[in-house]
Amino acid sequence: MPLFKNLDSVFGFVLLMLAAGTVVAAATQFAATLTRMRARFLRQAVEELLSQVAPAHLSSEDARQLALILLHHPWLCGRTNAGASSLRREDLVRLLVEVASQDSLLAARLRDALDLAGAGEALDLARRIGSHVLALELENPGECTRDRDTKAIIAAMGPHPLLACIHSWYGQAMGRATRRYMRQTRVITAFLTLALVLALRLDLFLFLYFHLPGCGRWPGMALSWLLISLGTPFWYDRMKDLLHFRPSQI
Question: Model pTM?
């Protein structure tokens, strides 16, 4: 009988952690979506990348304006005015070439940064990329979009310096943005977990089922906060696996 009672306690504890972790994970993602954290950190990453690729031609203000233009492009955002929250390497290259083909002072600076002779060359390059994408799509409709775009860009641009720059800086810039995003979400998770523990007084479960000796109200609530805040990323990953949902990296 005591064995079954202990097993009930363990099952109850696991279910509580699962429920609380799922609630906190969902609330964290909702808060991140509401505040558009991913879009904000992505914009910072694109600004850093553009500043690193050609610091002699693009100032920090130019990089900021280009990042806004790229991330609000209809290709990424559709008909919404909100900035994109994800950006593939292939899309970044294609959009940079498209923006460079325009007739503006910012586009001229971008052409200098990308080592393009003029707007005509940039426009011709953009058209060649598009035609290669279309040809590959007709040839193999089931091919992964990322692989198809990569092949089209390489076929159209060849050994262009832009590809080497983007390949060199993209992973580092996006990796830094992703780490900043994860740190911010951990802070939000900690605050939401604290609010949940205080609202539901989850320390009562630990004391009633595990009979922890010598613990008062606040130590038990602190333990509940620690367990849930540390376990929330685990439960969030399990939830994504269950729903077959994997959001792309920033």
Answer: 0.75
Return the DSSP state at 35: T
Query: Token pair 């994970």 is at which residue?
Result: 25
220-241 confidence digits (pLDDT tens): 778 788 878 877 777 666 666 6
Structure tokens at 113: 């940064």
Rounded (10°) CA dihedral 134, 140, 143, 147: -50
8 A C-beta contact, residue 50 and residue 166: no
Distance CA 112, CA 66 (A): 14
| 162 SS3 class | helix
Burial of 241 (0-12, 13-18, 19+ CB in 10 A): exposed
Place of tokens 């729903």: 243
Q: How far apart are CA 78 and CA 72, in angstroms?
A: 9
How far apart, in Å, are the Cα atoms of 58 and each of 47, 90, 206, 233?
10, 21, 58, 39
